[in-house]
Amino acid sequence: MRESMEGFRLLTLYCFLFSSMRIATATLDTITLGQSIRDGEILVSADQRFELGFFSPGTSRSRYLVIWYKKVAPKTTVWVANRDNPIFDTSGVLHINAGGILVLLNSTKDIVWSSNTSRSPENPVAVLLGSGNLAVKDGNDNNPDNFLWQSFDHPGDTLLPGMKLGINLVTGLEWSFTSWKSNDDLSQGEFTQIIDPHGFPQPFLKKCPVIPYRAGSWNGLHWTGYPQLKPNSMYSYNFVSNEKEVFYTYDIRDSSVLSRVAQSPSGVGQRFTWMDQTRTWAEYYATTRDECDNYAKCGAYAICNVGNFPVCTCFKGFVPKSQQQWSIYNWSAGCIRKTPLDCQHRDAFVKHEAVKLPDTSHSSTVKYISLVQYIEGGQDLYVRVAASELGIIESRRQPSGKKQVNVIIIVASIISGMGALVLAWIMYMRKTKLKNEGK
């Protein structure tokens, strides 16, 4: 009996020590070969900013492997591994194999989700970084360019500082972020933010098969559709476009500030900043605030201005393509030229100030689609029109015969004037001479 009790005590002590060891291991920021994360355990980034663990959103019982802010309540998730394949109990377990692949298993040992890599590591390690990036690396190689895999290359519905939005033109990897279906369902929703590299690269909000919104091209400081997002004391913005990649990224100047860009299930893109005083997320900006933010609201060769009524007007020198549709406030057909361009004569350019530059992604012939005018910000755009539409064609282009007549009249007037002066001078001199002789 005494031996049985002693054996039970040893078994209890072993289980306690094993459990403590697993919990201690699970609260580190790293997973190595032989280690795992089970439902109820977490990884914590070294700076105590982010955690990785299992989570059920809202009223859902589905379990997802996610990354969230450690010190923000309620939980705000920034990345989801198995968003389209949830686990329906608490059996989930994450581990890393010898090939450097992260594998998420369920109760039947089926693979629910896995990462990938194109290289064979010697000592694969998964680490949760202070940026919110879950990275798989080889040993102590901390160079991001050498990561075997990273969650930053596979955004969910959130863009964190340092993440890319764009495309790798060499590998085809697209950095985009997609909304959830709902606040209770983390699977891919209807709205995706991308950067289209064609024409002048620009961000688009996609809801297949339509484009609800675009941000305009980069002007060196900001997207022309986001005039409020200029470099400031809080944020820095960067845009890269070369033969290898096209991407946009942003950073926080004060690393202690929490900030994120999220794509909501309703299609609104929002930038949030965490306020420690109120313990809430403050909205810094949101897309699609008014009807002019809707893509191609006014069609081609027209401009949208919420300060006008109606909001859509044709460029000078253009008329509605369908006056009937225009009269019932359906402007989608846009406008057409009133007078065709005449390349043999001088046409004119009309300046439109403070506009979002047109969409150039689908054609080399710009049709000036989706133009918005702002109270401040935006760019100047010059649109070519027939000179006759500005009432200047006659002054620029006169018949050659009329020009010759004008020249003759001018020359004759000058000669006549000079002749009159010479004649007056001769008469004056003669009169003076006669007066002197009379004396």
Automatic annotation (TrEMBL):
The keyword Protein transport does not apply. CDD domains: B_lectin. InterPro entries: Bulb-type_lectin_dom, Bulb-type_lectin_dom_sf, S_locus_glycoprot_dom. Residues 1-26 form the signal peptide. PROSITE patterns: BULB_LECTIN. Residues 28-149 form the Bulb-type lectin domain. One of its GO terms (biological process) is recognition of pollen. Keywords: Disulfide bond, Glycoprotein, Membrane, Signal, Transmembrane, Transmembrane helix. It comes from the Eukaryota. The chain crosses the membrane at residues 407-429. The keyword Secreted does not apply. This is Bulb-type lectin domain-containing protein.
